[in-house]
């Protein structure tokens, strides 16, 4: 059997048994790194920027005292580091004998600016918070690594969704900083077409609501509900939703429960800023600068990055050591959210780690 066919069969077997692979995940440590007088690309400055992060494992150093086993994993828009701490992610990757065994790797999970427990608009500045862009988030992550954690090189950079987009920017801005990278669920081009339209719909739903009051609302504007509904569709899989909620009553009940759970956990300004931050993203012109091996993975049922666009296949040709993998639709894939199911894609992570070993 050809190598690619064997790998595909192995992937199917592994994906089918995904629920059996997760273990009780180890517990992370957490910390904060405070950057004084952080300067944004807009020209604005914050006197104090707090960057929250989680870590698994301990740093290992070489004879020169440089950390050699660091792995950074970047979350998506409106997410945070804690999304990687549950059984379906940490329980599949970070446990003993697993690919990113925390006894071997120093795993760093930062909360991006505006997300999680890092500094964000809802902390008090609201709409007076600096209008950050992705380049600001990359710079802050670099400061956290180099100044806060004394990491000047990564064994692996892995990013999901927004973190996938940040991975491309990292690879171009700091081409010698990592041994390998795995961007999951994005495209390395300007956000346009349906993806941009949905993002604009989310922002318009908030800004056009009279209750938004230019960001100085006393209670969350009603437009936040519409924004949350659009986000649900962006990350969904038609196959999974139809399978899980095959009747009108079940579908309605799921939506009601989603909103009941999700809405209390989000803030309109935080959400607006997070989606607006993608406005300048476009790494396409500098993909040839990338030096590290790249394993680029999307799922065929991803509403945001549909395979019929052909963009991923076109752009990966610009990356010297790049490879693109399109995961086929199965009962295990979950649309855009497949990026957070390593049981589905970890055979390709294994390949990347093996290929990039020095």
List keywords for this structure.
358 residues; alpha/beta; Rossmann fold; Rna Polymerase Sigma Factor, Chain: A; 2 domains; 12 helices; disordered N terminus
In short:
The chain is an alpha/beta fold. It has 12 helices and 8 strands.
How does this structure look, described?
The chain has helices at residues 3-16, 18-21, 90-93, 134-148, 162-173, 193-207, 223-234, 238-244, 248-262, 268-276, 311-315, 342-355; strands at residues 29-39, 45-56, 70-74, 106-110, 156-160, 181-184, 294-299, 322-327. α6 runs antiparallel to α10 (268-276). The chain has two domains: 3-189 and 282-355, 3-Layer(aba) Sandwich (Rossmann fold), CATH 3.40.50; 194-275, Orthogonal Bundle (Rna Polymerase Sigma Factor, Chain: A), CATH 1.10.1740.110. The chain is globular. With 358 residues, the chain is an alpha/beta fold. It contains twelve helices and eight strands.
């Amino acid at each position: 059997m050809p190598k690619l066919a064997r790998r595909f069969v192995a992937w199917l077997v592994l994906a089918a048994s995904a629920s059996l692979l997760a273990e009780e995940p180890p517990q992370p440590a957490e910390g904060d790194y405070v950057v004084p007088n952080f300067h944004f690309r807009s020209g604005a400055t914050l006197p104090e920027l707090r960057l929250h992060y989680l870590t698994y494992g301990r740093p290992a150093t070489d004879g020169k005292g440089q950390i050699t086993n660091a792995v950074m994993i970047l979350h998506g828009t409106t997410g945070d580091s804690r999304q990687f701490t549950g059984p379906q992610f940490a329980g599949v990757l970070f446990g003993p004998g697993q690919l990113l065994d925390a006894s071997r790797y120093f795993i760093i999970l930062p909360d991006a600016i505006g997300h999680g427990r890092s500094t964000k608009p809802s902390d008090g500045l609201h709409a007076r918070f600096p209008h950050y862009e992705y380049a600001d988030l990359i710079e802050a992550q670099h400061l956290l690594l180099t100044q806060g954690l004394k990491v000047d090189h990564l064994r692996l950079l892995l990013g999901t969704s927004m973190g996938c987009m940040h991975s491309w920017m990292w690879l171009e801005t700091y081409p010698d900083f990592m041994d390998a990278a795995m961007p999951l669920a994005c495209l390395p081009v300007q956000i346009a077409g349906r993806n941009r339209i949905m993002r604009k719909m989310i922002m318009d739903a908030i800004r056009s609501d009279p209750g938004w009051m230019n960001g100085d609302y006393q209670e969350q504007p009603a437009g936040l509900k519409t924004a949350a509904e659009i986000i649900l569709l962006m990350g969904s899989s038609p196959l999974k939703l139809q399978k899980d909620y095959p009747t009108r009553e079940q579908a309605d009940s799921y939506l009601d429960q989603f909103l009941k759970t999700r809405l209390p956990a989000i803030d309109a300004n935080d959400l607006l800023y997070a989606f607006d931050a993608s406005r300048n993203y476009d790494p396409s012109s500098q993909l040839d600068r990338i030096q590290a091996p790249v394993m680029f993975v999307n799922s065929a049922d991803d509403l945001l990055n549909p395979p019929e666009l052909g963009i991923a296949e076109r752009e990966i040709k610009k990356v010297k050591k790049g490879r693109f993998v399109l995961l086929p639709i199965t009962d295990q894939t979950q649309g855009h959210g497949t990026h957070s199911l390593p049981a589905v894609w970890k055979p390709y992570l294994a390949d990347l780690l093996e290929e990039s070993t020095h």
